[in-house]
Structure formats: C-alpha cells, structure tokens
UniProtKB/TrEMBL annotation:
<dbReference type="InterPro" id="IPR009771">
    <property type="entry name" value="RIC1_C"/>
</dbReference>
<protein>
    <submittedName>
        <fullName>Putative transcription factor WD40-like family</fullName>
    </submittedName>
</protein>
<dbReference type="GO" id="GO:0034066">
    <property type="term" value="C:Ric1-Rgp1 guanyl-nucleotide exchange factor complex"/>
</dbReference>
<dbReference type="InterPro" id="IPR015943">
    <property type="entry name" value="WD40/YVTN_repeat-like_dom_sf"/>
</dbReference>
<dbReference type="GO" id="GO:0006886">
    <property type="term" value="P:intracellular protein transport"/>
</dbReference>
<keyword id="KW-0472">Membrane</keyword>
<dbReference type="GO" id="GO:0000139">
    <property type="term" value="C:Golgi membrane"/>
</dbReference>
<dbReference type="Pfam" id="PF07064">
    <property type="entry name" value="RIC1"/>
</dbReference>
<dbReference type="InterPro" id="IPR040096">
    <property type="entry name" value="Ric1"/>
</dbReference>
<feature type="domain" description="RIC1 C-terminal alpha solenoid region">
    <location>
        <begin position="761"/>
        <end position="936"/>
    </location>
</feature>
<dbReference type="GO" id="GO:0005829">
    <property type="term" value="C:cytosol"/>
</dbReference>
<dbReference type="GO" id="GO:0042147">
    <property type="term" value="P:retrograde transport, endosome to Golgi"/>
</dbReference>
<dbReference type="Pfam" id="PF25440">
    <property type="entry name" value="Beta-prop_RIC1_2nd"/>
</dbReference>
Amino acid sequence: MYMAYGWPQVIPLEQGLCPSSQKIIYFKVINGLLLVVSPSHLELWSSSQHKVRLGKYMRDADSLQREGENLQAVWSPDAKLIAVLTSSFFLHLFKVQFSEKKIQLGGKQPSGLFLATISPLLSEQVPFTDKDIRVSNIVSDSKHMLLGLSDGSLYSISWKGEFYGTYELDPVPRDGCEVIPSSHSLDNGVASKGVPGTIPANNCVPRKSAIIQLELCFPLRLLFVLYSDGQLVSCSISKKGLKHPESIKAEKRLGAGDAVCTSVASEQQILAVGTKRGVVELYDFAESVSLIRSVSLYDWGYSMEDTGPVSCIAWTPDNSAFAVGWKLRGLTVWSVSGCRLMSTIRQIGLSSVSSPVVKPVNECKFEPLMGGTSLMQWDEYGYRLYAIEERSLERILGFSFGKCCLNRGVSGMTYVRQVIYGDDRLLVVQSEDTDELKMLHLNLPVSYISQNWPVQHVAASKDGMYLAVAGLHGLIIYDIRFKKWRVFGDITQEQKIQCKGLLWMGKIVVVCNYIDSTNTYELLFYPRYHLDQSSLLCRKLLLAKPMVMDVYQDYILVTYRPFDVHIFHVKLFGELTPFTTPNLELSTVRELSIMTAKSHPAAMRFVPDQLPRDRISDNHMSNSDPLLKEPARCLILRVNGELSLLDLDDGRERELTDSVELFWVTCGQSEEKSNLIEEVSWLDYGHRGMQVWYPSLGVDPFKQEDFLQLDPELEFDREVYPLGLLPNAGVVVGVSQRMSFSACTEFPCFEPTPQAQTILHCLLRHLIQRDKREEALRLAQLSAEKPHFSHCMEWLLFTVFEADISRQSANKNQSSVPKYAKNSSLLEKTCDLLRNFPEYFDVVVSVARKTDGRHWADLFTAAGRSTELFEECFQRRWYRTAACYILVIAKLEGPAVSQYCALRLLQATLDESLYELAGELVRFLLRSGREYEQASTDSDRQAPSSPRFLGYFGFRSSNRKQSLDKSSSFKEQSAHVASVKNILESHASYLMSGKELSKLVAFVKGTQFDLVEYLQRERYGCARLENFASGLELIGQKLQMSILQSRFDAEFLLAHMCSVKFKEWIVVLATLLRRSEVLFDLFQHDMRLWKAYSITLQSHPAFTEYHDLLGDLEDQLSSIGTSQEK
C-alpha cells in the first residue's frame, strides 16, 4: 500500500538550446541515480535522501544541427552506459564515471555523493535503409539493445555500437491465441463505456503496422510489442536475451485493439495495458494469460474527455501498486485490487452522475500535472514518484509516498498499531479515540536517519506500544507511551547490522541480519530495553536468505527458497529485566520441505487453534509442554494473491481464495475479555473487498463470509485502504487521501486521513445465524459502551430485514419454494438480541424509516406491536423516539389510533417544554385530521408513510408552517381539531399566568400558535397585568435583559402586543428594552398615562436604573408641549 503525503517536490532542469520538441524523451531511476534526457542535453541527479545534480552533458548547436535532436535513449542496467538516438539516426554512446570528489551539503557528516562526468564514447549513424522511417523506444539487456521500426520490424544494436540490422517480426501468434476482454471481466467501474469491446478472431495485425512501444520483461523472458493501430502482442525471447532477435516469437495477442502503452510487473506477473479510452486493463501471466480487471476514473466522474488516453504506467518496486498518467490531465496510483490510493485530480466524490467540467487553468492552478503526464518513474524504494508534465522541459515533480507492506516478507506487523512509513519518518494512526482517528507524523532522529537513510523495515510490538525501525544499518526502538527513542550507544555495533527483517517476540526484538563478509544471514535477539552487544540474548545462524518469517508466542517460522519451512522454539531461562542477563535457547521443532509449482509465498502466519473463551485461561495454566500449544497450521499468501492453509503436520495445503492483497490472523492473538473479534479466524482484503473467516465444527474447518455479501452498503470504499484492526472497538482502520489547498503554495498538500469502519454488526450476524445467542449477547454487551454501538445495531437489523424482504420477493417469484425458508426466524432472533439494550426502540424505528412502508408489518411482527413500543417509550419519557412511532402506528393501526397517541404525546411534550417536537406533532395532527375526514380512497393514497411525512419527526419540516387560527379547518371546528386547539390554548394560559415569557415565545415559534388572537381574547383574563410596578418587576426578573436571547424574546412579545394595542404590556416591555420611541409615541397622546408612569418610576427605589430613560422622555415630551404652545 502506498499513500502520498506532504507537498510535491520540484527538481529544476537545465534550459538547453531551444528545441523543436517540447518534451523530455527519456527518464529513468537506477541505483539511486536519476537520468533525464532532453532533446539537447543529459542530466544525472541523485534520487537518494538529497536531490542533487551530479553531472550533465550539453550538446552544442553544431551537433544539434548536424546530427539532429535527441529522439530516443536507454540506460544500461548497470547504469554505466547511456545510448541516445538522434532525429537524424545518429547513435551516441556515453559513459558515466564518478570522481573521488564528495559533495558537501552542510553539517558535520559528508553526504556520500560524488560528482559524475558524462563523457561521449561513440557517435555513429545507424544504417537504416529507409531515411523516413520512425522508431519506437529502446529496450536493452546487459549486452544488446532493441528498437521497433515503423515498418513493423525490430532493429538490434550492441552496447559496443555494433549494428546487427533489422528482423521481420511476424505479429500473428503461432497458435492463434488471443486474449480479448469480455463484458464479464472484473473492473472497478460500472459504466458501460468502461467495458472493453471485442475484436474478430480472424482480424490479423497488418504487416506494415508501426511499432510504437517495446516492453521487455527479462525475468519472464517476454517482450511485448505495441503497434500503432492499438494491437498488443506478447513475444517469447531466448534465455540469452536480445542477442538473437530471430528467436523472438509472437505468442499471444492481447486487448481490444486500442492499447497505447503497457508496463509489466515481473514479480506478480501482471501486465498493465493503457488504452485510448483512459482505462487500464490488468492481465495475469502466472498461468494462462487472462484479463483480471480494469481500472479507470469513470466512477469518480471523470471520462476520457477529461483525462484523455493513458500516456504512461509505472509499477512500484514491489509490484503491489501502479501509477497511471493521462495525456490531458493528472495521474493516479492504484493498488492491484483496484483501490485508488492517490490522485492529483481534484476530488468530486465517488459515483458522480456527471463528468465534471474542466475548469479554466486559473481556477485549477493548484492541481499538479494539470496539463497531463508525460513520463513517470518510482525510485528504487518506492518512497518517491517522479513525474514530468506534458510539454514541459523545466522541472520534475517528486511526490513523497509512505508505504505499509502488511504481512509481506520477513518483517512482522501487528494489526493493532497502524503505521505507514516514509523514507525518514513514520505516519502513526492515533487510535485512542475511535471517533476521531488522527495521523501523527513521527520524524526519526536525525543522528540515525542521516547515516542510515532510508527506512527499510518497521515492526510494531503485539500490544502496539513499541515500534522497531531499521534503516540501511542498525536499529532503533520507539516507545509510544513515553515518546522516547532508544538507539545503539556504540555506532560501530550499529553499522555491523544490516537488517533484512524485524519481528517482535514479547519484549524481545528479533533482527534478521545480513553478514556482508560471509554472505550469510542470522537471527539476533535483543531485549527492547537495551540495544547493545552486551545485552544480545542469542545469535542463530540461518541456512540461507529467509523468504518469509513469522512469530507466535514462543515459536518462530522461517521459510527459505524454494519452499523449506523451519519452525524454532524459543525458551528463555531467567527473568527478562534490565538488571538480569537471562539465557535464550533456540531449538528446531519442525522442518518441512514442500515441492510445489506455485508462486513463492509473500507472507506466512501461524494460525493458532481457537478455543472457547472459558477455556483460554485453563489452557494456559495446564499446557506446560511446548508441543501442546505449538500451532499446527499456517496461512500462506502467495505473490499472485492466492491464500491457502498449510497443515504443518502432514504438509498438505488447501487453497482458500485468490486475489488477496493482505490478511490478518485474529484468533488467539489477544487474551483480553474486551476483544470483539475473538470469534473470527482471520480477515483478508482484495478486489472483492473485506472478507471474514470463521471457524466451523463441520467438515470444512473454516467458513468464509465476506462483507460484500453480508452488507452490500458496507463494502470498503475504493478510496479507503485497510491498515489494521482495533479489536477492542470492533472496527477496521483504513486510510484515504485528502488534499488541502493554500493560497501561498503552488501545489496542494497530500494528507493521508485515517478512517474507521465498524465490523461489529457482521460478527453479531454471524453468531445469530449459528444460534450462538449467548455469545452474541456477550459480544454486544462488551461493545455497548462504544460510541458506534447504536449505529452498528441499526445496520445489523437493517441488513437482516433487507435480506428478509429480498427472500420474500424471491419466494413470490418461485411458487414452488415454501413461504418461510430455513432462516426465516433470523429477523426475530436479531430483535430478541436487540431487546436487551435500551437502544432497541430507536434502532427499530430508524430501520423502519429507511425501508418501504409496505414491509413495516413484517418488521413489527418480529420487533413487537408498534403501539406497545410507543407506550414503552412514552412511559420512559423518550418522547422524540415515541414521536417517530406515530407514523408507523398511522400505517399499521389506522389514523384514529395514531391521532390519539399524538394528542397524548403533544400534551406530554408541552409539559416538558419540547416545543419544536410539539410543533411537528401539531402539524401532523392537523394534516392527518383533514385527510381522515376525506374519502377513504384519498386517505389510502395520502397515507402518512409518504416520505414527506417522515420529515416531521426525523428532520425539520420544509413545508410552510400552518397557523392555527388561519387554517380553514378551524372554522369547521371538528372534534379532532378542537382538541388540538384546546390543548394549545390551555398551555398558553398556563405560561401566561406564570409569566413564563421565554417559554411562551418558544411555544409560539415552535407550534405557530396564533398569539394575537389569543391576546385579544384574554386581554382581561390571564394576560392582564394588575399593577404596572409589580408587573415591571416580575417581568424584569423573568426576562433578564443582560441575556441576548431574552432581549429577542422581549422584542417578539412587544411586536405582538403593539399589534393588539395592549398598553399595559407595551409600557412594561418597552421600558425593559429602553425603547423610548415606542413610549414617546404612546405618551404624547395620553399625558395622564405619562404622569402615572413617571410617578411610579420615581417613587420606587428598584427602578432607579430607568431614571435616565425617564429624563429622555421628559425632554422629548416637553419639547412637544413647547411647540404646541407656540
């Protein structure tokens, strides 16, 4: 897995003489060196920790005019020779030599980089017979070069400058084999335009088609020839390589006739073919050449019109991912399974309906490679992806990548701690709070990484609290709890260690060390508390280079090529503490030599025997004999993605599945009671998504179930790649790419973002299906306090109910099938489990709202009668949940019952001051009342199960709010509507009598109660103020004017009082708000009222704060009186 992080790095290139071709013609990384060939010059850069130009060769103007610009180039595998073919068909050979002069980059330590010189060796014209001929790229082995010509022939040249002439290649396969993509091929898209077409079987490649690309895969002895008409032919070559071009024979034709580029992953034996449609097709060469799947950006809303055809493909060094560049826009990195790991193209979301319009350049200036991608290369470690933009000669963009090679090779990685490692840092997922996962960038100590760049291996301890990190030499350990590094005190000891693998065995770090002097390998055992030769516990010499390794408890598995398995038992004598020096002995307990023609293992993991939880403690107390607890099986993941189970007793291997990228063995890995995945044997991930395996007591010892079948909507997103598990939370932790933009930088910052996806509902469903009710209840109780528990329960019930609906639909179509299948009670079992938790009522009604109302009867037959569930919520005062049941009751029990329940709930919500909920109930009652009075046929058509009614209780209603007094139904005064009105008026009178004015305002706003009509009727009733002074004091206490919301409430009431000319209230509220203009308008027409008001404020000591207001009013009124006298 590869994930981009940070800002792209820019490597500037020399500006040569003005070439006619605005394009870099060759780009290659070998042994930490980066070669760039432009039309007029060559540059050699360091691609290691420091990006430094080491040398260059500039052609002069005379040479360019006489021999033409550089057209094609190739670098010898040993990086010592460079061949360049010019546009006038002159072959230039250059030699790369390094001087003894080191480059000083600053600091105390030298950089280890030396200046290089690129000197010409040979310049000779290639004797082509046709001067107008065109050439393809050049491929080479250690002694010969090969290039394709526009007449369909191949031309051979030696690295000594010897021309062997042309060879006519017959493009028709000897056996007529063709591999044509079909519409049933696995791809990552669903758009029909992404499905390749077919070509007739008798359509032969024209003899005169031009060869535009050659792709050589020497380990597989294959040469792929791409023609200008889009045909791709695979050819076999001899063991001697390209020395005898006449031995090159066409074997198979591939693709649909629209190929434009190709690239081979030799380790996984996969061929990636880029097409004119912007789609990349993957072909398997392991056994029979077949189309595996295709990947494209169609599902992300980008079509070929946006990106153009594929321009280049580059595989990572370990062949686990590949980068795809397009002619018109951007690049993307995919995993082999089709997960999109990184993309420079701006995100618009998955499964977009329409393709986004390409924005003007000024709006997309922050997008890298906006003009398309011309060439790409990974560095030798996979930490950097170099890319060159189309029609660009000025710079190279370097994208930094972190990787996580899970379960591969000789380094162990626990699934509890998720780590992505870059060349000089670790990106650690902080998972203490599962609601908000964060990515921590952990920089390695400069003193270590500067001398041992880059990071080679990372292993986390079983509990995830310690990280062992190895660079080019040595080893360091990080304590996550105390945030401290532990290093070798003696640097000479550090430099003697060339770590080729890391494992954790409890508190011991196991290092697979390569001894350069003797070309041998050994295991070193260091305690985690002290890295020093004096603390070395044991040294075990290995027979050969280990291929894969694993550890479980006291057992170590080491596998050599071709397939020899050795298992060692580790016994520690003494206590492992900083104050003691215990002895450690290693004994061989099992050796197997397996003969197989399958591909090599990429990972092997012990599979412990699974025991019930109540037997775990007893087992650990009694099995003092090491042979009793020795694992008898192990999982094997092969390079080609095949997952199998190996019996270590008899050596038998059973195939399980294929197309797997990674897996986690989860059984027997934790003794904690809070482990939620103990029932699971292992999980795997591939192009099918996540798959989970369970132990079975039947003939088949393990049972496979995949998340895709169980929960179609919970398949892992194809933008999220899983990194590990949090067993105590029951979630899978994945990572996806995000980009952040800034106005001060040219390019966005790539940010790996962790995401959690729960699997608890899958585990519970598995247990329920197998009638393990007690285990399911215990598992649910362990996770009941987790923040995602309610969500998991909802998805559990939803998926079971959806499956039940689908089964019933299938039974209706097949009359011969009985109505109730064997698993018909699964819904009832699920409801029985959920009844043990208070979230049950919320979960049931939430699932009902997500499904069609026609199936509610089946759900509530299993879950319980809707009125009973409503009554339980009502008694527990869970009024919001109870309100959601109103719609279900209206559908299942009829409108009369639902209206009765809604009236009860309305009164209860008013008593609890839940006015927004009360308002939704009022609107439901008014509408359902009108519908109830209509004809029964209309009532059925307008049943409350309509989606617009769901908004009443799940979301705020978007309909126009209905006013009680202005509704025409009130004039009819039906008994139903009268009940609603009486309840509201009674509550309004209660609030007004107690002068609970803030609640009154919230009540009016929430229920749309007509306050004006009510005030007109109750002017001399409960709304009357007996005394101004007491009223001002009481209302001032109820409405605290220092609180902003109280001032808003007072303004709201003042507006309504003014509309009904309620003078007593106007005076009080205007005084509290200090609204002198309102008081002035009132008093200028009633001076007697003014005098009473003035005397009251002056005579009460509590009202001294209003004397300034009184003074202002007196000045205004006196000025009015003076003007009237004049």
